[in-house]
Amino acid sequence: MTYPEPTQYREPTQHREPTQHREPTRYQLQPGYQDLPAYGVLRDHSQATVALVLGVVAFCTGLLFLSPIAWWLGRQAVREIDATPGVYNNRSMAQAGQICGLIGTVLLGAGLLFVLVTMVFVVTI
Description:
This protein is mainly alpha-helical. 54% of the residues lie in helices and 0% in strands. The longest helix has 34 residues, at 91-124. The model has no long low-confidence stretch (mean pLDDT 80).
């Protein structure tokens, strides 16, 4: 069996190196229109989740010293979520953590006030 003669090949073109190295493109979420949400997948704000977990743990277990931290993290997460619309989707978790932290902080303050009044009352007797 004989093979036909190969056709004439062209010389490969020279590959030119780019003058500058480009960074890979990072696409941002595209904003939505008036009644439509933004395009793309919305992310969860990690501080909102932490605030909710701290608030619930502090409220349910009695570790009320965690409540001010949950309140602060929840407030910070709500502010960041409001500052960047169309990026995060768990604002309600941040609000729930903020509210649980607020309730726990009030209970912590009431407990400390009770202990202080009790100590003053015992000392004066």
